[in-house]
Amino acid sequence: MLTILTLLCLVSFSFLGYHLLRSNLYVLNNQRNLQTLVKKQVYVGNDQTSDAQIKKSFAGKSATKADAHARQVLNYLDQNYHYALRWSFDGNLANGRDVSIDTVNANFFTFYLISVASGRTFNARDYTSSSSEIPVLIGAKLAKSHPLGSKFSIVNTSSGKKEWYKVVGVMAANASVPSVYLLDNQTYLNNSIIRPFRKADRKNLTATQLMSAMQDLIVYDTSQAQLTKLTQKFNQGSFFKIRFISAKKNMADFYTNYKGTAIMFALISLIILAIATGIIIWNTWSCLKEEQSEIALRISLGLLPKNMLIAAIIYQVLISLVAVIPVTVYAVTYTKTLAQTAVGISSQIVLSGLLPKAEATSLVSIFALMLVITVFAVILVTSRFSKQSLAFRMGEE
Fold first, then answer.
1. Are the beta carbons of 30 and 183 closer than 8 angstroms?
2. Phi, psi of 270 (to 5 degrees)
3. What are the backbone dihedrals phi and psi of residue 60, each rounded to the nearest 5 degrees, phi first?
């Protein structure tokens, strides 16, 4: 009964500890990837346009006015501000595969460090060219069907027009865009096509495209007064409603909420581990006392105290291994699900091993912590028991 209770506690600790550590690793990784935003005075757009505004602004003649307003806002941005822009729309390749078609300006790569496994990233000419053949970066999951140097056509759903692309770069596996609002979250680009924001795009910009770019629109090297003017320009005519928030404040707000939750789960995990350790100590001591006659007999036949200690340690290692099996099965099943096309294209990962690095690190770390603490408890109990006179305790009985 005590062994089952111990297992339940250790399994609970494994699950809680795994999720907590995994989340923290993603937060640390995304924080490192967003260091450029932290170092600069950066403001991030927050789209607050209501559903009522959207219905009113994008119907009939209002849609034409909204598009004209969007181009005015873009011109104002170009003339007065430094900014990084990205909009994303879902599309379909000729083979039926779902993809994300992302349009970015040159400054986007200043803040989001997208690694390229082969080929190149965009150069200055890619953004100014009027060629009908558009250079693109392709996600790792698309590289097999659309390798470096290949050409293909697709309907760009953001404009409704058919475009011709040439693959100039293949992004690294699991390249992602971290969220400025939720540091433990990111958008994977394994199924994405990234194209440059070109002159033709500026000329034909639609309100729908600008609205898609408003969330996470980055404006930097500007004053609060200039930012207020930009907000007013966006919100003119009630087509859009945007608010700009400091990237540092976004991250500070996230940490304020995240730390409280993380500390709570950490405390719960440690309490569960302490309960499990207490049960292990009690169970080990009770078993040794119950079997002290047998142990005394074996010692008289040549059993060394260290052999008894080794046996106790092996038993606890086996208990810990059994306890970590459920969370291991969960981690492997979950990551395999993320590697399949059943999940959303922005969540799919490329699985090169049994587990991604963050998951594997979390699993091994939790198992190691659990093993060290529980084995140490067993060593203390067994060592104390072996120091006492077995003969004396047997005589008392």
1. yes
2. -65, -35
3. 60, -135
